[in-house]
Records
---
Amino acid sequence: MEKGVFETIFKRMAGVVFVLLLVLIGSSLIYYFMGHGNDSFLDCLYMTFITITTIGYGEVATISASPAGRILTMLVALAGIGTMTYAFSMVTALIVEGNLTHSFRRRKMEKKIEQTEHHYIVCGVSRVGMHIINELAATRRPYVVIEQQKERIDELLEQWPDTLYLEGDPTDNCTLEKAGIERASGLFATESEDHLNLVICLSASHLNASLRIVSHAREAKNMDKMKRAGATSVISSEKIGGLRMASEMARPAVVSFLDVMLRDKEKGLRIEEVSVPDWLAGKTLRELNLKRYRELLLLAVREGERWEYNPEDSLCVTGSSVLVFMGTPEARIQLEGELKD
């Protein structure tokens, strides 16, 4: 949608530049032939240039002293100044319309996205998409948003002005590639219509077979289709809403605790997970010394399909172990950084 900006600018300016060159070269040739070669072509060109630009250092071509030469000079001034004024007004109009500014902003955004890796791609700034973006931003995870409607992007930037985004079609392979799908850690299909999310899952899984894809489904009957299209997980609003209502009735204190935890923007506590790298295989939890993180509480360790809740310090981890804990984003980032070293 943006690639035609420079084509439009070129088409608008091509005619103006052509007329300006025609006046410049044509007038110079007329000066030259009217002077019977007494003035060099460079002098005639210089005479035309200072006339058009209203510099007016003085008459260079000798023919300008004749009545015909002065009439020609006036015509050159009218034609040249009129053309240049039109050109400047056209450039000003392009800037005011925002085409140039928007194009430069888009290119700058694409360069930033090219440098981003291990990020999450959010396809669609729907109501569900906004909640996902809020969570990713709150937990300081890198993300890129793809949205077709400029109005939704403007609403997003009002809340999160530093968001990396692409204004385009998330079902298009080129747009997904620009969003860095080959380098991404995961993708959210959060369009309002199920058939769009189905296409997004299919395209994303084709471009990156190892990518984790989480899709939103408005209708439960479409969940299996999305999984067959490549989605790793499919979330149904109806199912989540039902589970939440049941939990509110049976476990009100637990639901209240989770709500308070999610709303607390100062501490930002979350239930997080961190994978154990291969070089730490065989180490015990005591050796990992997770208790040195005051803002981190280890809840469980997952080993494949097996879970160890409230694990003992003597538990050995492997390269496939996943640590599940409650902590702040700062603690998670620090732990991830140290485990990579």
---
Amino acid sequence: MDPALKRQILLEHYQNPSHHGLVENRDYIKINTNNESCIDNLDIMYKIEDGKIADIRFDGEACAISTSATSIMIDTFLGKTLEEASEILENYENMLNEKEYDEKLLGDLKLYCDISKQPNRKKCAYLPFESFKKVLESQRRNG
């Protein structure tokens, strides 16, 4: 992906993030995730209906990488089944860890493909996905 395009996508999702703002609704699973080494502290809410991700909302304070990664994750996950989102998560983890991954599944998330060159930023790019892993765990327990 062209570096200028990467920067443009990242800035767009940082300045105008998708689904920003929380809702008061008991149908959502709310997860807090934070990065001890910087300001990142996000509340992310997931609405799961019939095994699909119906909505995701978020709010909090975070750097450009965490905010954009959260916004892009939301755009990527909405409407997907938990299994489909899990497959995307697995490929995203592989990409961040410089393992083999299916680029086609990631969409705009592939803009973080070089983040491993900046290990301190890797946690920022992964932060919203930590919350999704917790949602998966809760769904398996309550499932």
